[in-house]
Amino acid sequence: MKTTDSLTFKSGYSEVNGLKMYYEIYGYGKPLVLIHGGGSTIQTSFGRVIPLLAKSRQVIAVELQAHGRTSDRNADLSFEQDADDVAALLKNLNIDKADFFGFSNGGTTTLQIAIRHPEITGKIILGSALSKRNGVPSAFWNFMKQASLDQMPGQLKLAYIEVAPDTNGLQIMHDRDAKRMVNFTDIPDEKIKSIKAPALIIIGDKDVITPEHAIEMHRMIGGSQLAIIPGVHGEYIGEITTLKQEFKEADLVVGMIEKFLD
Predict the structure, then answer these.
(1) At what angle do helices 154-163 and 169-182 cross, to 10 degrees?
(2) What is the rounded distance in angstroms from the CA atom of residue 7 to the CA atom of residue 4?
(3) CA 173 remoteness from chain centre
(4) Other beta carbons less than 10 A from residue 232's beta carbon
(5) Which of 210-215's residues contact partners 24+ apart within 8 Å by CB, and which partners?
(6) DSSP class of residue 238?
(7) What CA–CA distances, in Å, run from 176 to 134, 196, 220, 228, 234?
(8) How many CA atoms lie within 13 A of 69 on its CB side?
């Protein structure tokens, strides 16, 4: 058991499809799996919401291939592989079914979990998830083609260096994430429409993801709910690059998430 800011948690590594996959477990109750964004760690995406969510749930937070404390494999990243890795981790932890909350790239991974592993999927929260290339402004793709490590937010670089066993992996993580986005292809409509899990779609009104894209996904996933929250990409969960001096827990969407998961 470890303690951070008086919050007790268990952490460990699991052998998953050739990876040493890092995870943390907080709290007790029904399992809720948190899946971070690109270039991120558990703490940079979810550090502000974990203490609140763990009051009523068993929170299982993971770090995906090449991110944070998880090892790399000699293969490009894909959202499908990330989904399969998370499913394998849950099997190793003897968890038959869970709810999932994915942010940004983690939201796209959560879509793939619901598509590829419906039997383990309870409810899903898609935070700023991308399913089509037209879901972001075209300038995003031009930026990704020229992405370099020096453009990566300093908070994310520092967070990686603080936890990674080998800090040389920072460049690898950056390059794998950038390549995955450059090569991103649309998730077919029929696969999105096949999702039967209850879904809550959340974006910021100044998000990277366009409101039109979130609405399109909302219409494709039967019975889903949609929330457009004031703020930028990840501000609604206090993602580390969005934090301001006047940050207040009351501005986070935890209450909405808990109501949806109830």
Answers:
(1) 130
(2) 5
(3) 15
(4) 15
(5) 210/135, 210/136, 210/137, 213/130, 213/131, 213/132, 213/134, 213/135, 213/136
(6) T
(7) 21, 31, 30, 30, 21
(8) 14
| Regions of the chain where pLDDT drops below 50 | none
Is the CB of residue 42 less than 8 Å from the CB of residue 34?
A: yes
Residues 6+ positions from 237 with CB-CB distance below 8 Å: 45, 46, 48, 49, 103, 127, 252, 253
**pTM (2 decimals)?**
0.96
Fold for domain 2-261?
Rossmann fold (3.40.50)
The β-bridge partners of 127 are 103, 202
Neighbours of 21 (CB within 10 A): 24
> Residue 156 and residue 63: Cα distance in Å, rounded?
14
* pLDDT tens per residue, range 128-139: 999 999 999 999
Residue type, 250: A
Hey, how many other C-beta atoms are within 10 angstroms of the C-beta on 54? 20
Please report where in the chains the tokens 């709290």 appear, as a residue. Answer: 27
Task: Write out pLDDT tens, residues 35-69.
Answer: 999 999 999 999 999 999 999 999 999 999 999 99
